[in-house]
Design a protein that fits this description.
Layout (H helix, E strand, L loop, with lengths): L12 E3 L2 E3 L1 H10 L9 E5 L5 H12 L4 H4 L4 H4 L13 H6 L6 E4 L8 H5 L3 E6 L2 H14 L9 H10 L7 H11 L5 E5 H6 L1 H12 L5 H10 L2 H5 L36 H14 L7 E4 L2 E4 L8
Parallel strand pairs: 3-4, 3-5, 5-6
Antiparallel strand pairs: 1-2, 7-8
Helix pairs in contact: 11-12
Length: about 300
Amino acid sequence: MELVQDTYRYPEEYVKGVPLVKFFAEALGPLQSFQPQPDDLLISTYPKSGTTWVSQILDMIYQGGDLEKCHRAPIFIRVPFLEFKVPGLPSGFETLKETPAPRLLKTHLPLALLPQSLLDQKIKVVYVARNAKDVAVSYYHFHCMAKVHPDPGTWDSFLEKFMAGKVSYGSWYQHVHEWWELSRTHPVLYLFYEDIKENPKREIWKILEFVGRSLPEEIVDHIAQHTSFEEMKKNPMTNYTTVPEDIMDHDVSPFMRRGKAGDWKTTFTVAQNERFDADYAEKTAGWDLSFCSRLGVVFSGNHSRGSV
């Protein structure tokens, strides 16, 4: 019996020096003509940093906490992924055209590849950042199960590529820092994964204030409960199990895997950790932005936000 070649697992394509999933790179051309609506809200993250989590929180806010309305479609339909493109499925840009206002949009694009219209029109952005070590581990497992990415190889080789910024969407360091710098001049609410993990209600109140909405405390409690990792992992509208298996193989690794802060400690060897820490210190020298390697422990640099 002849083996059918995998449709996916193509090498990344470079756009303006940034490696991207081949199909996503192809989507960037049409995306440059994108004209946002004034009440659009963009959710931006480096991959595996809590994008789906904050997307579900925001959709529940927009739906007034009505869980049934949030079951109307999978999260990638409710919150169109701007640069998404996979053979046989509607692109993010196409999905966006069918989305009624006020719209929530999602992207992982670095600023160099973002449609300029989003910046020119000062569209509000909720940005979520997560510590680099947990991102690296989560991104490795995501590469294993999401076949639009090239084969990640071994964990050790993937970690080297991650540190060098040679994975899809490029450098974590550049991404989190350039969006932090943008928050000085653009309406960006810059959130941290670990802060949401520690106190979700506090962060939901921040989001409500940023988007100019108010909800009773019992509804905020309801949103916090139904956007917990445990609830979202078993919810087909958030856990990506509706995506065809030839694109995402949940038998290899679930899309929502562990959702912890500090889980990197189960994967990094002592040698990998020492090498990563040295590289991290070099690349973040002079930052006024800091991260937590686990709850309660600042990773490095000056702590530029409330205590975690």
